[in-house]
């Protein structure tokens, strides 16, 4: 089972704007990180799960890691957002590991998640209260 990562969709107004940003990078999307994950070998076949409004909203498959030549590393991603069943996740800085057993399942084509239709601010407040 692959290991995954979570990251906040920083500067993303919505999952739709995150999808648009990813799709605008036709070949591959890249994120810069200072440190190469210590468990990088376990991430073969893994994904980066995006947090928006205190919820995991989608994932992008990880293509690999590459050194930038400036003391940093790129996380190379497929330029697509695969919607997942919404799951509450607290905000954090940088990225964190996510075990495969804890990762939410993908949504089927055309399937909507009730939590994804709820306004992000309301969803965030309900999540803080432990109600979703």
Automatic annotation (TrEMBL):
InterPro entries: UCP032025. It comes from the Bacteria. This is Lysophospholipase.
């Amino acid at each position: 089972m692959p290991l995954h990562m979570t990251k906040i969709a920083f500067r993303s107004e919505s999952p739709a704007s995150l999808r648009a940003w990813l799709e605008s990078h036709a070949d591959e999307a890249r994120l810069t990180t200072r440190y190469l994950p210590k468990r990088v070998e376990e991430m073969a076949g893994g994904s980066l799960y995006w947090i928006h409004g205190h919820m995991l909203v989608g994932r992008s498959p990880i293509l690999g890691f590459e050194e930038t030549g400036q003391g940093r590393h790129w996380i190379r991603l497929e330029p697509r957002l695969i919607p997942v069943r919404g799951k509450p996740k607290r905000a954090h800085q940088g990225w964190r590991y996510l075990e495969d057993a804890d990762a939410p399942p993908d949504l089927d084509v055309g399937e909507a998640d009730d939590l994804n239709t709820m306004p992000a601010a309301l969803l965030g407040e309900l999540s803080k209260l432990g109600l979703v």
